[in-house]
Amino acid sequence: MPERKKVNLPFLFKKVADGQPITWLTCYDYPTAYLQEQAGVDMILVGDSLGMTMLGYDSTLPVTMDDMIRHAQAVRRGSANAFLVGDMPYMTYQPSVETAIRNAGRFMAEAACDCIKLEGGAAMADRIKGIVDAGIPAIGHLGLTPQSVSALGGFRVQGKSAALAKKIVDDAKALEKAGAFAILLELVPDRLCKLITERAENCIIMSLGSGPHAHGQLLIYHDMFGLYPKFKPKMAKVYGNAGEVILNGLKGYVAEVSSKTFPQPDNWFGMPDEEYDELLKML
Ligand code: KIV
């Protein structure tokens, strides 16, 4: 397969101008990044959801910058060309603009990310501005923002009432004014996503469970392939049950080792008789 060109901001904005939806997936490791690169995924998010999908925590809150950098580096090794987004974990940008710039810089310098993403609306606009002014492209994240799940009252659709929807519209404008080149809308009603997309001036609107009207779609890789054992969100489409395939394989391995049918000669290596005889003499 001919190697595709590196995805950059002009490429993403051209897709928007041409009415071509942008594809975006989460990814946390080298082999998956390699496959996503081969599939031609435009953008890859090294999400702090790795706290749940890869590390088994109940939320994203325990994830550290060092966790994120380690996984982002592995993903970059697997995908040279996708537009790589480093997701800023809990309390790595909330305390101050300076903290935000320093940690955003780590994604760029240590993991060769193309941009960062952070959660929050108008209250985080100065963090976005600081990061963008430092020369780092930034994506905002509104609607269901998992780092605030306690304040939001759980993993549920956001902005269903007019008042809450208005706040999300205002937050989106504040992030756009602060310089965010894109905004992810997670779990907001489709009509609200459409309205924000239509009003966006120079900002790419992406949807996660927020309907078809955005400039592109994001899915969580583990939900797409039955790889997260605890639950499957409604918004996720399952494209294949890799979890089931792997489980069947594991059961097969356990059964074959137990019944002594694995390994077979194909799975081991011999040594020449004369070398083995020599070895016996040496003992
Ligand atoms: O961490 C993540 O994967 C995310 C998505 C839920 C959008 O932020």
Would you kindly provide a written description of the structure presented here, covering whatever features stand out?
It is a single chain. This protein has 283 residues and is an alpha/beta fold. It has two domains: 9-240, Phosphoenolpyruvate-binding domains (TIM Barrel), CATH 3.20.20.60; 245-282, no CATH class. It has twelve helices and eight strands. An eight-stranded parallel β-barrel has the order 1-2-3-4-5-6-7-8, surrounded by six helices. Helix 6 (125-133) links the parallel strand 4 (115-119) and strand 5 (138-143). It is elongated and about 85 Å long. The chain starts with 8 loop residues before the first helix and ends with a helix. The model has no long low-confidence stretch (mean pLDDT 96). The chain binds 3-methyl-2-oxobutanoic acid (KIV). Residues 26, 45, 47-49, 87, 146, 184, 186, 208, 220 line the site of 3-methyl-2-oxobutanoic acid.
